[in-house]
Amino acid sequence: MRKLLLGSTAVAAAALFAPQGALAQGADPFLPPGPPMVSHRALEVRVGGYFRFNYNFTEQGQNSANKDSGAGVPTAGSATTGATSARIGKSDFSSDAEIHIVANGKATNGLRYGVAIELQVDNNDGRYTPYSGARVSNSKTMVDTDEMWMYVAGDFGQVRFGDEDTAWNLMSVGHVANFGSGGADGDWFDSVTATHRAATMFTSDPGDNTKIIYLSPQFYGFDVGASFAFNQGEGEDTGCVLSTVTGDCDRANAFSGGSPKRRNEVFGIARWRGSFGGVGLQAAIGGMTADATKGQQVINAGVVSNAVSSKPMWMGYGGLQATAYGFTLGGEYYWGQANATYAPLVRGAVDTRNMGQVFAGASYTWGPVTVGANYYDLQTAGAQAVGAGRRELVWSVGATYVVAPGLTIVTDYSDIYRKEAGYNFIAGSPGAANNKVTSKVFILGTRIAF
C-alpha cells in the first residue's frame, strides 16, 4: 500500500543493485553521499528508513444512507467478554515507521552480494486484549519484519532469496502512484475498517512469502524476471501454532475449513524500456500460476463432511507507461482464474467467475510539487456462496510537496466503493442489508526518509 514512501522496497532495491562504484559514492536512498559504515565482514552497511504522520478524516457509510462512520455489529457476551458494540468517529492522527538495514559486498572475482532487512511498526490492525483485566495484549505497534532477503549479482543478472516481493512487483510498469500517500494505492487503506476496506490486486499484493527470484540483465531495453515460492508462508519455523497441524501451517496442502491458499506459485514477467523523441516508454507483460490447497474431510459424530475442492490459479498482467515534460501516464490490466487478494476459487461454488482489474493513473511534476490522480476497478466473484459478483472501485486525487531532501508534505482524497448484491459487508455473511458500503478519506500528512 505504501508505494510512495521514500524508503520503499523498490527504491532500496534500486540502490542495492546499482553498480558497486555508485554504492561506494553514497547511492543508498536513505543517506546523503558519504562513506558508509563497514561491518566486521568488510561489507558496506547502511541504515535508513522512514517515519510518517497523518491526519485523516474518514467517513464510512452503509448503503449510502449512513453518513456517520457506522455502528459495529452487536456481539454476544461470554464468560470472559461482555456484549459489545461500538460507533467510530471520523478524525484521527496516525503514525508509522520502518527501519531498513542494507549491507553490500563485492568479491575479488566481481560477484556482488548483500542483504536487506526491513522492520515495520504496524504488525497488527488494532490492539487486542482477550478479556477485561487481562495482563496480556497485542499492541498494534508491535515490530515485525516487512521483508528480509539476500542477493547475489553479476553478469548473469541478480538472484534473491528470502521474504521479498514477486517478480511482478519488482518489474511492474504503469502503476502511477507518485503523489500524495499513493492515491488509490495509498494510506486510505489504513484509515477504514475491514468491512469497508476494498480489496486490491496490485502487483505488490501477493505478499512477501519466502521465495527465490531471478532478475535478468537488460538487453536492448528488454529484461525478464521470475519468482517461485512453495507456499504463502514467510520466515522460519513451520507456521504451525503450538505444533498443532492446521491450515495455517506453511506446508499445509490439505485442510478443512478456511479459505484455500496458493501452493507452488510461479510469477514471470518481461519488460521493455526505451525512449522516442524525448518520451520515455515502458511496457510489461506477465503471467502467474499456482496450485491450490485441497479440502479435507472431517468426521464428526460418524458423519463425514464433503471435501472442498479449489481450482488451480492463473493470472495475466500487462502494463504501459509514458513519461515526458513532467507528465507521467500509466495503466495496468489484470485478469485470470482467481478471487480477490490473489486467492484460488472454490470449485463448484455458486459463483466461480474469473477476476478482472483495471488501474490507471496520471501525474505531473513541476519543481518540488507533484499532483496526480488514479483509480482502480476490481471485479471478482467475491463471496462465492452469492451469485451476484463483487465490484470494488477506488478513485483518488492528491499532491506532494518536497520541503527539503527527505522531507515531504502529502495530501490526497480517496473515494472507496464496495458492492455485492446478496452479501452483507457489515455482518460478513449473505444477507439483504448493507450490500453496498462506501468510504471517503481525506489525508494530510508528512513524511521523512532518513
TrEMBL record:
Residues 62-87 are annotated as: Disordered. Residues 1-24 form the signal peptide. The keyword rRNA-binding does not apply. GO terms for cellular component: membrane. It comes from the Bacteria. The keyword Signal applies. Residues 69-86 have a biased composition (Low complexity). GO terms for molecular function: porin activity. Keywords: Signal. InterPro entries: Gram_neg_porin_domain (IPR033900), Porin_dom_sf (IPR023614). Residues 10-416 form the Porin domain. This is Porin. It comes from Roseomonas gilardii.
